[in-house]
Amino acid sequence: MRQAYLDGSSGISGDMFLAAILDAGLDPRRLLEELKKLSLGFYEFKRTRVMRSGLVATRVDIRVPGHQPARGLPEIEALIEKAALPENAKAQARRVFARLAEVEGKLHNKPPEQIHFHEVGAVDAIIDIVGTCIGMELLEIGELVCSPLNVGGGRVEAAHGTLPVPAPATAELLKDIPIYSSGAEAELVTPTGAALVSTLAASFGPLPAMKVERIGYGAGEKEIHGHPNVARLFLGERIEMPRAQPSLPGDELVSVMEANVDDMSPQLYAYFAEQALAAGALDVTCSAIQMKKNRPGLLVSILCAPERADALAQLLFEQTTTIGVRIYEARRKILERESVKVETTFGAVNVKVARQNGRVLNVAPEYEDCQRLAAEKSVPLKEVMLAAQLAYRQRKEGT
Q1: What count of other Cβ atoms lies within 10 Å of the Cβ of residue 40?
Q2: Helix/strand/coil percent split, the chain, to 5
Q3: Residues 374, 321: contact at Cβ < 8 Å?
Q4: Same structural domain for residues 314 and 371?
Q5: pLDDT digits (tens, 9 = 90+) for 238-286
């Protein structure tokens, strides 16, 4: 299966997405053969080459004579279900429309099945959504990664009046997705484009490591002054980059694992931390955070050797309530460390000594040793710790 990367720095709409897929190599005849299986009646499918800010791109234009009815979610789902399309494409298209209905229902305080789409229920929008899902299936795209999306600015005319950009439905669809506004007073991301990307993209971020085979350019309807109204689609093979090596003495590469949790008992966290440390974690921490809907939550963080990341991720899923984990690599600088036993008036204490290039930078008595001696001798803990530090200093100076 191929990997695809969608560059949304100029925004995205349904027709731009479909046009980019065609420009990246999808056979238009195969696409039209599949689209004919939808019972949509007569329409004209135009594919042309256009210029947008000096870039040549493919433009898709669907024209339908007469008035377009507003279709509801059950009607559209039945339309897709009856068509003899690839099963995965049908499933993805239904997911996109279900997402749209969920958002529209939330905005208009109605159940999703009672929502009647206007622009999105028209033939051109149905072809944009179903055609994009068919195109991804025919091009064997197994994973879609998307850049942060430029949503534009200003205001836009819609069925319910003049709305700010991004339109309410678009903004709702793009929750938890990186977006920004730059370069154009225009609607750059449409509800159809937002629904496609939020449903089909596996992740969002920079261009991943991949061997690019083709690049498709999909043009938007308008020429926007000073702004290339074009979506760019990279198509190719995912590659694994060689693991970077530490660059300096005292450096090491570690994996950092993070999970946000808002429904877990603190008792479960304590048990998980013990299990994770026993399974090879270098460190386990828990921080208070504020999550969606202003709910208090926990950020569970694990530090481990890269080769232990998969096993600890599995432990995280099994022992906590999280349903997702972020894993990334980081460079850790560490000091040379050794444990030295010193004699104090209270008894023997192990002291952890940290050095850099032979120079002692930190001395820390072991807490458990000091705690035990403080209890046995009935003296303050801080006196035992101070005595241990003094004993190490005297030993180091040879006095």
Answers
A1: 18
A2: 35, 35, 30
A3: no
A4: no
A5: 887 655 554 455 578 899 999 998 888 888 888 899 999 988 899 999 9
